[in-house]
Each structure stands twice: as structure tokens, then as C-alpha cells.
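Subject: Protein translocase subunit SecY

B.,
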Amino acid sequence: MKKFITTIKNIFAIDDLRIRILNTIGFIAIFRLGSFVVLPGIDPNQLQANTSGLFGLLDTFLGGAFSNASIFGLGIMPYISASIVLQLLTIAVPYFQKMQKEGESGRKKINQITRVLTIIIAMAQAIGFVATINSEAIAINTTLFTITSMIVLTTGTVFCMWLGEKITDKGIGNGISMLIMIGIVSRFPGAIVAEFLSKQLSGALVFLFELIVLFFVVMSVVMLTQAIRRIPVQYAKQVGGSSLYSGQRQFIPLKVNAAGVMPIIFAQSLMFLPSMIASIWADTNETANYIGSTFSDFTSWQYNVVFGLMILIFTYFYTAISVNPNQIADDLKRSGGFIPGVKPGRTTSEYIDAILTRITLPGAIYLALVAIFPSIAMMLGVTREFSQFFGGTSLIIMVGVVLDTLQQIESYLLMKHYDGMMKTGKLRGRTDNVVIAS
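Prediction pasted inline below.
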């Protein structure tokens, strides 16, 4: 405890770090306040929250802004959608590939295109958002309300995007990820209180057991996020003037979960399609009605089996497009590095690809288990709100953002020669002797 208090004092003793933390808190406070400002023309007393299916997922990410019909009702999600689209385009379209290789100027162009695409997506999603609001809550003309809401919601998304960029520039951590995490975490106190009240006094031991299970689930997700497979790399001896420098021994860190949370997001988006398509023929076809009811219930075994298989497929797909063994092999060859016992060039690429394929399988299986664990927890008696924190997209995002933020704080402390957040002075998985696998 004494070491923790000393570390907090060291953090606030660094002027730049203290200002960045206070800036982050201020920007987050603005974001949370905006989540409770209702759209113009709505009677808040008549609002009926729709938190089923996709709407419930959005509301979790937005910290209740969706169900509150607030000016930040779309939050940062249109920007996330635009970023995913641009990321896929830089892989599939040569024009965007060339732009990505242009360095800082290319990055600025991609960012500008992402912002424009965000506005287009936000306007389209605003129409769907307005359609989810029950007509009894609308206190003005419907056409006027739709037009004004589109403008306000799009402006709210742009403002959230600006807040995220400001957190990245003047705060601590990645701004966009921080806003998503804050939206998720804001639901945790209410969820844990509701879970405690639902257990009554006789269920106090059960509630305590749930907290212990939650702790170990979080720790396992941290391990999954930080786990890497190190491939040793040897650099040839170099001659500088009259001196001979021995070759350096480094390593390539291949992450066990290189795809991150993207496979769950993709799979979860597609899992809404069967029930949506089946609803068209639900009244006339018994099979369609069965499919619709089965895939709208995320606790059904059919839903979880398909969901898990899709995560396995998307994990391999996203790993394949995000980690390029050929590029890694070419970078090693140009820098004079080689993997001991493996020929440079194509053989090195095949060797890296084989290792990546093997380590992706256990990572994909565990990612699928983490994704379906909330439904398992709900079937075992955990409330719907609290079960969302036992795994899935929410938990992986929270763990990733917290680890990234801690690493940034750690770097500030080490630069000022203070003891780090951890006893070793380094977060697990970090090292100075690393070949970046890009």
C-alpha cells in the first residue's frame, strides 16, 4: 500500500503527466455529461429504452447514451465503422495501399477521408436511430424532429471524435478507445449493485463467488492480450572503421491474439442477420420463425456454436491481413537480420507463417470462449447487465485500454527515474530489445 501511495505521488509530481491526467479527466467528464443531454423535441418522461439485440450492444458501448436518446446517442461508433472500412481498403485497394506508404502525408489523407466517411455514416445511422425512438416521446413535428436530430446526432459524433483526438494529443492513452471504455465502465457500478440486490442475503456467498470468477476471467484476458511468441533474430557482425561490432540478438514478438477484439465485433455484427432475415417470413414459415427465435436468443446453444465458429474464422482472417510474414522477412533481409537455422527470404516467410498459424489456433479458441462466456454466466443465474463484464467485446476493450494507459504512465515514470507501476519497473511483455513485427 505504501508503494502504491508513493507511485501516485510520483505520478502527480511530474508536471506534464499531471496536466495530461487532469485534461483526460476533464474531457471524459464532458463526454459523460453529454450522454445525459436529451435530443431537442423529446419528452424524457415518455422514453422507453430499447436495449435488445444490437441496440443493447450499442448502449453498452455508449454508456447509456443510446437509451437516453442523447445528443451523443451515436457516440464514437460511426468513427469506428469508418476506421474499419478504411483499414480494409488499405489492404484490398492499391490506391489506399500506396497512400499508406507515403508516410505522414499519407496518414493525414487517410485521416481526412476517415472523418468525411464518419460524417456520412453518422447521418445514415441517425435516421435509424430516430426510427428506434417511440413516437409518444416525440413532442414536435416528426419531419422536423428527424431533420434536427440528424444534424444534432452527426454533430455529436464529430464532437466525440474531436474529444478523442484531444485526449490522444493532450491527455493520456488512446482517446477513441478511452471514450469506448468509459462508456462500458460507467455501466459497471449499476450492474454490480443490481446483481448484489438480486441475490438477497442468502445469496451473499454466491455473489462473492461471482466476483472471484470475474477476477480470474479478467486476469486470463490480460494474459491473452499480453501473450507473445518470441522468434529469435540474429544480426550479422558489422565493421565500423577499424572496429568490429558483434551481431545483436533480438526477437520478433508475434502476439497470440494478433487480431484483438475485431473478430468478435465482426462476428457479432453478422449474428444479427439470421434473425433479421428470418423475421421477413416469420409469420408464414415455421422454419423461419424457429431460426428467428433461436438466433435472437444469445443464450441458445445454436447461437453460441455458430458465434464461436465465426470468431475462429474471423480470427484467422484478420490475423492474415494484419500480420504480413512476407513483409517481416523482407525487412529482416534488408536490415541484415536472419532467424538462426532458417534461410533468409521465402523460407523465413514460410517459417514465420507456420508459427503464426500454430499460435493463432489456441488464441482463437480462447477468444471464442471469452466471447460466449457472458451467455454462460447468464444461464448460470447472473443478471444480464453484470454478465456482460464476464467476457465478450466489453472486457477485451477494457483490458486493452487499461494496459495501454498503464504503459504510457510507466514510460513517464521511467523517464523521470521514478519506480514504475510494477515492482520490476516494466509491464509484462515490454522490452527494449524488440524487432517490430509490422
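The radius of gyration is 24 Å.

T.
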